[in-house]
Amino acid sequence: MKRRLFLLFVLFSFLTFLGCSATTLPPKNRPLIPLKQANLEAVFEENEGLEVTPEDTKELRDFYRGGVQLKAKAERLFQEKAYPEAMRLYRSSNDFFSTLFLHHLDEDSATYPLFEGTHILFFPNLLMGDNYLKMGLTLRAMGEEGQAQPTWERALFFVKASLQAEPSEWGLALQQELLSLLEKNS
User: Fold this and answer.
1) What is the 3-state secondary structure (H, E, C) of 19-76?
2) Residue 111: enclosing H or E segment and its boundaries?
3) What share of the chain is helix, strand, coil (3-state, %, to 5)?
4) 56 inside domain
């Protein structure tokens, strides 16, 4: 029994290592979206306005907008080094994005149709990946280096999912940053 558990552990560790070590290349038939077109500031700008709270969410786009708005607040707090509060907001932002995944809206898109004639940057995977990246950096800054590593691995999962659906320079930059952090800490 112990031997089986050990072998399963070794197999799982090997598969995890393989999954984290490779760079996801954009699909050949999809053009790479330039950073100038798809970036965090552009997403924040598109989702400014009336604040969305969990009680106000009626449609799936409300969950996306609420997640983006909380992420914008978390980013400001992260820059101010208000780490515990930033961490709370990153988690809340991910809760909003997770609701989208439950409704099978799990693919990123640079031209998501909001309503007739209006399209938005729709990157829930990339935003969650960036949230987990920042959560890992926050954990490291708070002296919890051991918890940062699995958080960055989770971030890499979401960034790779984003790149599979919608290849972007933004996603590739996040992926490279995560791979660098994971390499340094392994």
Assistant:
1) HHHCCCCCCCCCCCECCCCCCHHHHHHHCCCCCCCHHHCCCHHHHHHHHHHHHHHHHH
2) strand 109-115
3) 65, 10, 25
4) yes
Give the Cα separation of 92 and 98 in Å (integer).
10
Here the CATH number for the domain that contains residue 59 is 1.25.40.10
What is the distance between the alpha carbons of residues 44 and 71, in angstroms, rounded to a whole number? 9
Number of domains making up the chain: 1
* pTM across the whole model: 0.80
Residue span of the structural domain in which 49 resides: 34-184
Digit-by-digit pLDDT tens for the chain (186 residues) are: 555 544 444 444 544 444 444 444 445 577 899 988 898 999 999 998 889 988 888 888 899 999 999 999 999 999 999 999 999 999 999 999 998 888 777 788 988 887 788 888 899 999 999 999 999 999 999 999 899 999 999 999 999 999 999 999 999 999 999 999 999 877
Residue 179 within a domain = yes
